[in-house]
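Researcher: Structure prediction, please.
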Amino acid sequence: MAVKKNYRNKSGRTGRMAIPNLGNYTIALDCAVRCMGLEPWSSTATSNHAMKLGIASARDSLCLPFKAHLGHFIEADNAGCEHAIMVNSTGTCRLTYYRVLIENILREQGRKIRIWGLGFDGFKPPVFRYFDPGFFQFVVAVRLMIEKILTIDTIETLAWQKRPAEYSTGETSRVMKQCLEELAALDERREVKKFHTAVKERFNGIKTDASFRPLYIGLIGEVSVLRDLQLNQNIEQILGHMGCEVRNFFLLGAELGNLFGISFGEKALTTKQLAKTAFPYLKNPVGGHALDSVARTILCARDGFDAMIHLCPAGCMPEVSVRPILSAVSRDKDIPVLEISFDEHTSATGIITRLEAFIDILKDRRRRGLGPAALKHGRIVS
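Model: Predicted structure follows.
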């Protein structure tokens, strides 16, 4: 196992930096922080304590991801972190204003942690100009980060495929957790590439029922709810244990490839291609990942998915705006779409009850040979 590199920056500045939770991808994002000579402070899911802090400090009207970010940064400040980083946005999504709003709340509380924005400020974002990492170590760290992202994509995809048919409930999740822990400890790209190659064999060791035909469900919606297990109540695992093979349509490798026009792993559809697909239903941009939600639903209907589940924070303007459009796509393309909104009052028991009822409907559709999924996959066995 490789030893963590001790990077330095030319500015001579040191400290710890908090990274917002982006699910398992946080493991890879740690590399970008280390290359600036800082120690990352992160986790793969928002903690219960952080959620309580964020909810107590934010207005009720603000969405769940805002409260999760705020609580995470308050917890980081309490832990002695001097810096934090979050993604900026443009367009109509309120994320455009979140960094400033969070900073204002933290200042009102007398906190000193500094929130850096990533994006849309020239080739080199302010945080990289401030810490000024060496060019070589920056390139090495980015290559390592990308290799880890691609490995995480593979781990998650294999888990989605294996979990519905596993003989021993929880075995897939155990293997997945072990793989992610080992990946987090690797600090050399060649070691990550070697590990990436071995991952498939690890999952092949999980005993599954080869005759089982799962339901195929696509997950679409807002990125924080799609990726943070705290916010989405661990919906991927719940659906897997209910016999569903899921596909989460936020893959960071594809997103970065789209942003920089470079292919990272799986061939990603460009924003232009998604817009062309969605155009009969969505003719104007509404921000966030709303375009992806509409386009992916259309494409999944063509590919024989049994259903889509649309996850969004309560009050999320882009995702709420496309709900009537998704209903129209559902009707026209004969693909069921379940809408689930999340806020701090969302009950885990309530989510499970809704999912169980939805899956019963999907199984009945498959038995009766209804919809494009039945034509492609045949009648469901179990």
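Model: The beta strands are 16-18, 39-41, 83-87, 114-118, 215-221, 244-248, 307-313, 337-342.
Researcher: Thanks, that helps.
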